[in-house]
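Just scan my protein:

——
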Amino acid sequence: MNSNNLDLFSSAGVGKLLGKRYLSEIHEEIRRVYLADNRPWVIGYSGGKDSTATLQLVWNALESLPRKRMEKSVYVISSDTMVESPAIIDLITSNLNSIQTIAALEGLPFCTQIVKPKILDTFWVNLLGKGYPVPYSRNRWCTDRLKISPMNEYIMSKIAQYGEVVIVLGLRKQESTTRAQAIEKHSIRRTNLKSHTFFPGAYVYLPIVNFSTDDVWEYLTENSCPWGDFKTHQELFALYRDAGADERPLVMDESTPPLGNRRFGCWVCTVVTRDLSMETLIETRKIAWMKKLLEMRNFVATFKEPEQKKQYRDHRRRNGKVYFKPGSKEIAWGQTTIEKGLPQILLRRLLETQLAIQKDVPHAVLISSDELHEIRRLWRTEQHDWQDQVPQIYHEVTGKHLNWIQEDMGAFTTEDQIMLDKICRKNNVPLNLVAKLLDLEREFHGMSRRVNIYKRIDQILKKDWRSLEDIIKS
């Protein structure tokens, strides 16, 4: 997007070409594709300019059809990774609510849906609870869990319900040569559809595939938003302008590049070196509370640096095995652990940031109560956190108590851990090994049939319980 686009608000034209076609031709094509079969449509809406233009084109095209001919549902889906940029998540939510309301009033077949990752797949549960490393360019574990899987599960549910679906996306050839080649490769002859690379029961329709960036802005600025007004698109344009940002794409596969440079994405994205969009937005709009988000993001990013691995990450992976880098005796570092303290550091800083932001934005939630409960469970069951630190940290930072789940059995205490440590040291037995076995016993206590307990014991005993020093010596 360049500064010349500012003129679009005052230069509305009639009969201009968009992607080498007139608007009436595009509308006619959309109606023809919609009426060609009984496959419902799923429109990917990210709140950015391309997906907004695509949704509006479809809306305006179908609106002219007789209501009795609109028999197929059009599902408008957005992804909320639960770490979305606050610059756009409010815009998405507001627009989806308006779309659903106006569609119902006008008898249009649009249904909106926000998809989210499962609690076990959220960013903070993986980073703090499971001990995953801070994401970086060669380990983007977050993309699949936060974006791809929730979208794919929703689409698969619709395929299971209807047999086949058409996925409508705001992809454009102009965005990259690789994307243009992929679009051509999957085109189905004599149709406007593409075969989907992952779902056998899905087809892809790209209404703005030949649009340029200027075409997109021209369409949006010359045509009033059907679920809002001209101000709706003016606000979107102002957001892009103030952040110096590009589209926030709907991520459905690993080929989508990481966000954060000049795109709107997750506010905590550490894959990129700097979040230039957030930096620019803070500078242009003087948003003090957003600066606190950026500071938190930058703080998290420091822990992806190589020198931090030995200090904060365990020498074992989550499966209990020790791995070495190919062709060397250098440890391939595993998860972060509460024993080394990084999860506690990050949780405390995150809660402090949330508390500070809520002074300006009371409804802001950086980490949900469900995530806190899950992190606590993982610390207790997988890392034998006998001190039960999550409730402690939460209360120390916020001064409040959540409705924490009370365990039926008496939990081990810090004193128990100190005593066990002394016994294990005296007998030269790894403390973590004995703690795992004790936690397993507690899990199965009182059960009349201890199915798989021997298998679970065997799994624990097969883990590498040697210390880092012993592994290096060997």
